[in-house]
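pinned: reference chain
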Amino acid sequence: MQISSAMGYALQGIQKGLAGIDKNAAQIASADNFKSDNPAGSAQSLVELQNNRMQVEASAKVMKSVDETIGSLLDVVA
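pinned: its C-alpha cells
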C-alpha cells in the first residue's frame, strides 16, 4: 500500500465519520425524537453517534501513524 493511499483512506474515514455525526446530531435534535411513542429512535441515533465518533478517532490515528512514518522515512534519507 502506498503512503498516499493510506492517507487518502484515513481522510475518507474522517469525512465519512463527520458526515455521520452531523446526521446523527440532526436526528437527535429533531422534534420527532421527543415523542414518547418512539424512544428507540433517539437511542439508535446515540449509538450511531458513538460509532461515528470512534470511526473519526480511528481514522485520525491512522493519519497520525502515516505522518510519523513519513517523518521516519525522511529522517533515514536525510
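why pinned: The mean pLDDT is 84. Helices lie at 3-29, 39-77.
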